[in-house]
Specification:
Elements (H helix, E strand, L loop, with lengths): L14 E5 H5 L11 H7 L8 H33 L8 E7 L5 H12 L8 E5 L7 H6 L14 H12 L5 E7 L4 E10 L4 E5 L26 E6 L2 H15 L19 H24 L8 E5 L5 E7 L2
Parallel strand pairs: 2-6, 2-7, 3-6, 7-8
Antiparallel strand pairs: 1-9, 4-5, 8-9
Helix pairs in contact: 3-4, 7-8
Length: 321
């Protein structure tokens, strides 16, 4: 049974809707070489996505993105010919947004894998906005540890400068690295991006609009202003909460057992205690962040992928061109 579409009116006007079956029929290209083992390598531990799922959902999505990439290349060439410019073509930038536990990391990694196999075999880089969180020491100084993942917990100016530099064609741009094991920025470690053809930026709040500024001559910018295409991975909050708890329970037997893990203290909780702890984290942090900050940005996406209770994509909304 298909979940009811969200009541928010922002998805009613500028979008066209396709069911999973209708969407799967759009793909016309020859099937690219993709195996179950390759899918297992890119999917998150709790994401049950299959090879058939990839073919039915992500092949058409990749083809649609390639249409946008080709059109962007044509516009770049024609406008530069008109202006008598000879600058190198700038990267095509894709944003991937969505809640904690929705599977946006799997979506981003799949897009990277599939796009890199597309026309011309483009160089595709992927960064996550986790690297642009303030270090824990700074979050503690600002009293924001309990709001980690909220917009104010990120160094938005640094993230904006990073994406602007990539989009401007800078030969080398560096992003801080984040460790989910220690739950913090790793000092001295960076991800280096060098002239990608496509850059994917994945994160909770990548579609967040610019902050309002007062005063004459003030023109605030947001990271999403530099996106050429964006994907929002969507699901009902009741499913998201359940998936988060399931992921928390699973991590008790894997990452949480590592003595270096920030969450090592949860390893010895009973099942009942762990469910209560995970539910409390969702109810006080992830749920409010979803409702107040992440979900309101959904209507800014080019494509919305809606998941059902089993993680399957049940319908797709595409912004009308």
């Amino acid at each position: 049974m298909i979940d009811d579409a969200p009541e928010d009116e922002e998805l009613d006007g500028p979008y066209v809707t396709r069911t999973r079956a209708e969407w799967a029929q759009l793909s016309k290209r020859r099937p690219m070489r993709l195996t179950e083992s390759m899918v297992r390598e890119v999917r998150s531990a709790q994401d049950p996505i299959s090879l058939d799922h990839v073919r039915q959902v992500y092949f058409p999505l990749t083809e649609l993105i390639n249409i946008y990439i080709a059109d962007a290349a044509t516009l770049h060439r024609r406008s530069h010919d008109y202006l008598r410019l000879s600058e190198r073509r700038v990267p095509f930038v894709i944003g991937v947004a969505g809640s904690v536990a929705v599977g946006k990391s799997t979506t981003a990694r799949l897009l990277k894998e599939l796009l890199s196999k597309g026309p011309g075999r483009p160089r595709v880089d992927l960064i996550t906005t986790d690297g642009f969180l303030f270090p824990n020491a700074e979050l503690q100084r600002r009293g924001l540890m309990a709001r980690k993942g909220f917009p104010e917990s990120y160094d938005r100016h640094k993230l904006l400068r990073f994406v602007m530099a990539v989009k401007s064609g800078a030969p080398e741009v560096r992003a801080p690295e984040y460790s989910h094991l220690v739950y913090d920025i790793v000092p001295g470690k960076e991800t280096v991006v060098r002239h990608p053809d496509v850059l994917i930026v994945e994160g909770l709040n990548v579609l967040h609009p610019p902050r309002r500024r007062s005063g004459p001559g003030s023109f605030p910018l947001a990271v999403s202003d530099f996106f050429d295409f964006s994907v929002y991975v969507d699901a009902a909050e009741e499913h998201l909460r359940r998936w988060y708890i399931e992921r928390f329970m699973s991590l008790r037997y894997t990452a949480f057992r590592d003595p270096r893990s920030y969450f090592n203290r949860y390893r010895s909780l009973s099942d009942a205690e762990a469910i209560e702890q995970a539910g409390g984290i969702w109810d006080t942090i992830n749920g409010p962040n979803l409702r107040d900050n992440i979900l309101p940005t959904r209507g800014r996406a080019t494509v919305v992928l809606r998941k059902d209770v089993t993680h399957d994509i049940e319908w797709i909304k595409i912004r009308k061109v």
